[in-house]
C-alpha cells in the first residue's frame, strides 16, 4: 500500500491505495471553508489549518502502517506554505517508518484521476480546468505530456471565483455560480473571448470585466447564466480547433471545474460531433484529493522513482510535468 498526502491549496487530504489492485483502502478530505469570508484562499490561514487537519486524518490510518511500502506527497505546483505542511508530514513519516518518499506533481495527479482503478491510457487529449490552471494537453503514446494551449491570465475556475466575489457570493464560486446559472437566462450579450479562430490560447480576464460592467443592469442569476455560457463557449471554441485535427479519439476532462455539469454537457456534444469518447473522473475526485496523488504515486513506485529526503522538494510552479 501507498499512503498519499495532498495539501497544495486549501484541501487537506490523505488516501491509501493498494498498489496491486488499485483499490481505495482509505480516503478522507477536509476542505477549508474558513476562506469563504475572504473571497479567496489566504495562504497563511491555509497552512495553519493544514497543520491541524492533516494529523487528525493521519490518526485514522495507523492500522495500515505495517502494510505501507511508500509515502507519497504533492510537492508542486501550489501555495508554498500549503505544500510545506504536507511535505513536512510526508518526510517525517518516511523517516520514522523507514519508507521511500515519492513526490507527485499535482497536475499529473489530476490527469490520473481519470484512471483511479484502472490502467493509465495514452494517446488522448485532456482538458485541465482547475482554480490554478486551464490547459489543453496531449498525452502521447509514450505517456509524455504536451501542453497544446493554456490561459494567458485567469484560469477557468478562478474566473468563476472572481465573478462570485463581484456578486457577493461565497468561495469557492464555481458550484454557486453554476447553481444560480440554472435559474437565469443568457441575456447579457457577453462576447466570447479571442473569438478570432487562429489564437490557440485562453483568456478570461476580459470576460470578468464584461461581468463587472453588467453588475448594475442584470440580476445575479442572469449574470451567472450569461457568464457561464460565455466561459464554456470559449473553452469549447479552442478545444474544437484541436479536436477536429487530432488523431486521438479520446478526450479527458480533469480538475475541480470539470465537475461543472453545463461544461460536461457542451463537451459531450463536441465529442459526439468529432467521434471522441469522453473520459471523466468521478465527481467526488474532480477537485483536489489525495487519491489521485496515490494513483500517480503507484506509477512512480513501479519505476522506483524516489525522492531524496535531503534536497528541497517544494516548488510553487511545475518542474516535473513532462510525463505521467
Ligand atoms: O482542482 P481544484 O480543486 O483546485 C486547484 O487545483 O486549483 O479546483 C478548484 C477550482 C475553484 O476555482 C472552483 O471554483 C472550481 O474549481 N470549481 C468549479 C466548479 N466546482 C469547482 N468551477 C465551475 N463550476 C463548478 N461546478
Ligand atoms: Zn487541483
Automatic annotation (TrEMBL):
Q: Does the keyword Cytoplasm apply?
A: yes
Q: Which UniProt keywords apply?
A: Acyltransferase, Cytoplasm, Iron, Metal-binding, Transferase, tRNA processing
| Reactions listed under catalytic activity | L-threonylcarbamoyladenylate + adenosine(37) in tRNA = N(6)-L-threonylcarbamoyladenosine(37) in tRNA + AMP + H(+)
Q: Where in the cell is it found?
A: Cytoplasm
What's its EC?
2.3.1.234
InterPro entries documented for this protein:
ATPase_NBD, Gcp-like_dom, KAE1/TsaD, Peptidase_M22_CS, TsaD
PROSITE patterns attached to this UniProt entry: GLYCOPROTEASE
* Binding positions (substrate): 128-132, 161, 174, 178, 260
Q: Which domain of life is it from?
A: Bacteria
Q: Which cofactor does it need?
A: Fe(2+)
Per UniProt, the cofactor note for this protein states: Binds 1 Fe(2+) ion per subunit.
Q: State where Fe cation binds.
A: 106, 110, 288
Q: What sequence ranges are listed for the domain Gcp-like?
A: 30-294
Family the UniProt entry places it in: Belongs to the KAE1 / TsaD family.
Task performed by this protein: Required for the formation of a threonylcarbamoyl group on adenosine at position 37 (t(6)A37) in tRNAs that read codons beginning with adenine. Is involved in the transfer of the threonylcarbamoyl moiety of threonylcarbamoyl-AMP (TC-AMP) to the N6 group of A37, together with TsaE and TsaB. TsaD likely plays a direct catalytic role in this reaction.
Q: What is this protein called?
A: tRNA N6-adenosine threonylcarbamoyltransferase
Source organism of this protein record: Campylobacter canadensis
Q: State the taxonomy lineage.
A: Bacteria, Pseudomonadati, Campylobacterota, Epsilonproteobacteria, Campylobacterales
Gene that encodes the chain: tsaD
Amino acid at each position: 500500500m501507498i499512503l498519499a498526502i495532498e495539501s497544495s491549496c486549501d484541501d487537506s487530504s490523505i488516501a491509501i491505495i493498494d498498489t496491486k489492485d488499485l483499490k481505495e483502502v482509505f480516503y478522507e478530505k477536509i476542505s477549508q471553508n474558513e476562506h469563504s469570508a475572504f473571497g479567496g484562499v489566504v495562504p497563511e490561514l491555509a497552512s495553519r489549518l493544514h497543520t491541524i487537519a492533516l494529523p487528525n486524518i493521519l490518526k485514522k490510518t495507523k492500522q495500515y502502517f505495517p502494510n505501507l511500502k511508500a509515502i507519497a506527497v504533492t510537492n508542486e505546483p501550489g501555495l508554498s506554505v500549503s505544500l510545506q505542511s504536507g511535505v513536512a508530514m510526508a518526510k517525517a513519516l518516511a523517516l520514522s517508518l523507514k519508507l521511500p518518499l515519492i513526490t507527485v506533481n499535482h497536475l499529473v495527479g489530476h490527469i490520473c484521476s481519470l484512471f483511479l482503478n484502472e490502467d493509465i491510457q495514452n494517446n488522448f487529449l485532456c482538458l485541465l480546468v482547475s482554480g490554478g490552471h486551464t490547459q489543453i494537453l496531449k498525452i502521447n503514446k509514450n505517456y509524455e505530456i504536451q501542453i497544446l494551449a493554456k490561459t494567458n491570465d485567469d484560469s477557468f475556475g478562478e474566473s468563476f471565483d472572481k465573478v462570485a466575489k463581484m456578486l457577493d457570493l461565497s468561495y469557492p464560486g464555481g458550484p454557486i455560480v453554476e447553481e444560480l446559472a440554472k435559474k437565469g437566462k443568457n441575456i447579457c450579450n457577453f462576447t466570447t473571448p479571442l473569438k478570432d479562430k487562429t489564437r490557440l490560447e485562453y483568456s478570461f480576464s476580459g470576460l470578468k470585466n464584461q461581468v463587472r460592467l453588467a453588475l448594475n443592469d442584470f440580476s445575479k442569476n442572469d449574470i451567472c447564466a450569461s457568464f457561464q455560457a460565455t466561459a464554456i463557449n470559449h473553452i469549447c471554441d479552442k478545444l474544437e480547433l484541436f479536436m477536429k485535427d487530432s488523431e486521438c479519439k479520446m478526450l479527458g476532462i480533469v480538475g475541480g471545474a470539470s465537475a461543472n455539469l453545463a461544461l460536461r454537457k457542451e463537451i459531450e456534444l463536441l465529442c459526439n460531433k468529432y467521434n471522441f469518447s469522453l473520459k471523466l473522473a468521478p465527481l467526488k475526485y474532480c477537485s483536489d484529493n489525495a487519491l489521485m496523488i496515490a494513483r500517480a504515486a503507484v506509477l512512480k513506485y513501479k519505476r522506483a522513482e524516489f525522492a531524496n529526503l535531503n534536497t528541497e522538494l517544494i516548488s510553487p510552479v511545475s518542474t516535473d510535468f513532462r510525463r505521467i
